[in-house]
Amino acid sequence: MIKVFWFLVLLVSITGFSQSRLSGSVYSANDSTALEAVSIYFDGTTIGTITNKEGHFTLTIEAGIKSPLVISMIGYMPVYVSDYLNTNGSIPAIYLIENTEQLDAVYLENDNWSRKRKLNVFRKEFLGNSPEALQCKILNEDAIRLHYSKSNMQLTAWSNEPLTIQNKFLGYTVQYTLTDFSVDFEKSLTSGIQYVTLVYAEGFTFFRELKNRPKRRYLKNRENSYSGSTLHFMRSLAQEQLVENKFKIFYKSFEIPPYSRINLKKEGEYMQVALSVEKLSILFDKEEQSFIQAKTPFIIDAFGNHSPATAITMGGAMSQQRFAFMLPLDYKL
Predict the structure, then answer these.
(1) What's the CA gap between 229 and 150, in Å, rounded?
(2) What is the DSSP string of 36-70?
(3) Which string of b and e fits 126-153 if b means at least 16 CB within 10 Å?
(4) CATH topology (fold) of 19-96
(5) How far, in Å, CA of 283 to CA of 293, rounded?
(6) In whole angstroms, what is the distance from residue 309 CA to residue 324 CA?
(7) What's this model's pTM, rounded to 2 decimal places?
(8) 214 upstream amide cis, omega within 30 of 0
(9) Rg (Cα) of the chain, in Å, rounded?
(10) Weakest-pLDDT range from 22-31, 138-147, 308-317
(11) How confident is the model at residue 309 (pLDDT cuts 50, 70, 90)?
(12) Smallest Cα–Cα separation from 67: which of 163, 185, 204, 184?
């Protein structure tokens, strides 16, 4: 049985580490009044702020960040800005459109799963099935919409407002705008029991510290979560430091030189990656086993974020690290 997990975070790249400032204002598209307490953040990071009473915001950023800037507020449709680098630090006024509650999609077949069952599957496959996941809580679960298709053996989920997730394992409060989520099942031919074959989650994330000063155990848990993670592997691969960071590569059960089946090509601030074989196994620190499959070449940025996310499949230990272990992309940078 193979269980894989894809997690797409739409972010990416830095060219330098000097700081600059970005400012703007947010208004209601309905009557042009200023909107206070609108969340402004770079996707997947801890870099963000909120608007003041005049709807104005100023954000200190690392020079060269190209992550989408997310403008989000409950009751309004989010706006994503990606062309802010050519604005000389001041982006045009942003107008948010009220998000009228959308009706759920109409399905041609009955959903024979109870909401309790669907929600339990969502928690398990989104947050994880581990003691660490039990320390995570979605504070607004009522916002999650769920549907199970018997004919497709697929569970889908969506939300009309950002999910607020309290992670007491890593010490973050995370705002997560869920744009796509699905769990695919298959049925055993012998027992008839359904099992998970694929989980796909896509969304925008903003991390805040749970406490003003992170507890020592939070810092320790973050370090342990980072070690051997997909983020750790991608950064090591892009920096050509797999061996130094305790990663070994195997092909058909035999250890091989780490880059003999991986073609790397530096493209400006990105590292372009292509596998010359369909699948490679990864061993971290002599005990954690994972694998990577790449349908097409992909790139890794300075954060260690890879794109397009759908180009690769991660399995094994790395694929088991669900949201409970998810770190901001600017962690340790």
Answers:
(1) 34
(2) SS-EEEETTBS-EEE--TTSEEEEEEETT--SPEE
(3) bbbebebbebbebeeeebbbbbbbeeee
(4) Immunoglobulin-like (2.60.40)
(5) 15
(6) 19
(7) 0.82
(8) no
(9) 21
(10) 308-317
(11) confident
(12) 204
The per-residue pLDDT for range 269-295, each reduced to its tens digit, is: 789 999 999 999 999 999 999 999 998
Query: CA-CA distance, 138 to 157, in Å (whole number)?
Result: 14
Q: What would the DSSP string read from start to end of 195-210?
A: EEEEEEEEEEEEEEES
Domain boundaries of the chain, sorted by first residue:
19-96, 115-209, 227-323
Element (H, E) at 123: helix 115-126
Within 13 Å of residue 224, how many CA atoms lie on the same side as its CB? 10
Pairing of strands 19-28, 94-96: parallel
Residue with tokens 């493209």: 267
SS3 76: strand
User: What percentage of the chain exceeds 90 in pLDDT?
Assistant: 66
Q: Which two tokens stand for residue 169?
A: 């394992």
Rounded Cα distance between 160 and 158, Å, is 7
Residue whose C-alpha is closest to residue 128's, from 254, 3, 243, 17? 3
